[in-house]
Amino acid sequence: MGVSRRQFLKGGGLAAGALALNGKPALAGGADSPELRTKGLQTSTTICPYCAVGCGMIVHTRDGKIVNIEGDADHPINQGALCSKGSALFQVANNERRLTKVRYRAAGSDRWQEKPWDWALDRIAHLMKESRDRHFVATETRDGREYVVNRNEGMAFLGGAALDNEECYLWSKFSRAMGVAYLEHQARI
Ligand code: SF4
């Protein structure tokens, strides 16, 4: 007895559809179910570093490497949604063009040199100290009276949306300790 196309689809075809292409039974949650995609991965939460909206994100890692980033449905600000920029954050961590070593180009030079992190941190500290010493204003005279101002006019500090409360606190403290009066936030510039 021949089998019509309709009978084939109804009987064998639909049953075969329950099998994955590799011959294994189809999984209940579907091949792209979030639960399956992230099963066995380490989960941490973070805040998108791009803008002042501060959307919450979930980051999944395997052996220390980021394999997935998605919106955090439990976060009160974005409730799981991300804009296109936030959705592409994965590419910041996993990108062959990402610089992972310090590169330095001396003033007037046309080439970059690779430098150790300790060298870079020492140099930043040295230049900050030098700038502060050069531009520090201890007192200011106004209307014939001298005021103590202890102001560093040689540098500015810039905060960003990715900083959490504690980091903002430390950043402000550090800037004030340096005598910085120009303390701003990325969302205002
Ligand atoms: S996901 Fe988009 S809207 Fe949300 S903080 Fe990042 S850049 Fe801003």
Strand order of the largest sheet: 1-2-3
Bound molecules: iron/sulfur cluster
From the alpha carbons, calculate the radius of gyration and give it in angstroms. Answer: 28 Å
Query: In this structure, how is the largest beta sheet organized?
Result: 3 strands, antiparallel
Strand content: 25-35%
Overall mean confidence score, pLDDT: 85
pLDDT < 50 stretches: 12-29
Number of strands: 8
- Tally of alpha and pi helices: 6
What structural category do the secondary elements indicate? alpha+beta
Gap between N and C termini = 78 Å
Shape: elongated
Q: In which range does the helix fraction lie?
A: 25-40%
> Which series of helices and strands comes N to C?
HHEEEHHEEHEEHE
Write a compact overview of the structure shown:
With 189 residues, this protein is of the alpha+beta class.
Give a written overview of the molecule.
It is a single chain. The protein is an alpha+beta fold. Among the domains are: 1-33, no CATH class; 102-188, no CATH class. It is 30% helix and 29% strand. The protein is built from six helices and eight strands. The strands form three sheets. A three-stranded antiparallel β-sheet has the order 1-2-3, with no helix packed on it. A three-stranded mixed β-sheet has the order 6-7-8. Strands 4-5 form a two-stranded antiparallel sheet. It is elongated. The protein starts with a helix and ends with a strand. Iron/sulfur cluster binds at residues 48, 50-51, 53-55, 78, 82-83, 85-86.
